[in-house]
Amino acid sequence: MIYADITHKIIGCAMKVHSTLGNGFQEVIYQRALAIELTNQKLSFSREMEMTIYYDRQEIGTRRVDFFVEGKIMVELKAIIELNDIHLAQCRNYLEAYNLPIGLLINFGSKSLDYKRIYNTKHPEIINQKQP
To answer: Residue 19: enclosing H or E segment and its boundaries?
Structure first.
């Protein structure tokens, strides 16, 4: 699994935040707490980073990503009762638009922390990883 060591650390940080705060807060509260945990784990990140969206290798706009960790991994946060297919598709679309191989979708809103690793199956790093 690509960048497993980094994604594992990020998920661990999110678990600590969720076990400390529980559910019920607004997304921005979890975002601030996660920033503290990422710093404690010595992970480099940008928060609310404006990233360029590409279409057919051409810049077509920008969007802010919740976290961009170690210059490789997009992290999108939610504080909702339940993730659904729309959230997963949105995350996958962002990965393709940003031309990134992997992202994490983390939901603090449910009773237990919910997270998904999302892969950009069109990215060369993912395609090359699948080959023997």
So the answer is: helix 4-21
pLDDT in tens, 40-53: 999 999 999 888 88
Q: Which CATH architecture has domain 4-130?
A: 3-Layer(aba) Sandwich (3.40)
Residues of the chain with pLDDT under 70: 130-132
Indicate if the alpha-carbon torsion angle 32, 37, 42, 43 is positive or negative: negative
- The C-alpha atoms of residue 13 and residue 25 are separated, in whole angstroms, by 17
* Helix boundaries (H) for 22-131: 27-40, 85-98, 124-130
pTM of the model: 0.90
What angle in degrees, to the nearest 10, is found between the helix axes of 27-40 and 4-21?
130
Q: Name the amino acid, one letter, at 103.
A: G
Q: Check the CA dihedral 124-125-130-131 and report its sign.
A: positive
Type and span of the H or E element at 16: helix 4-21
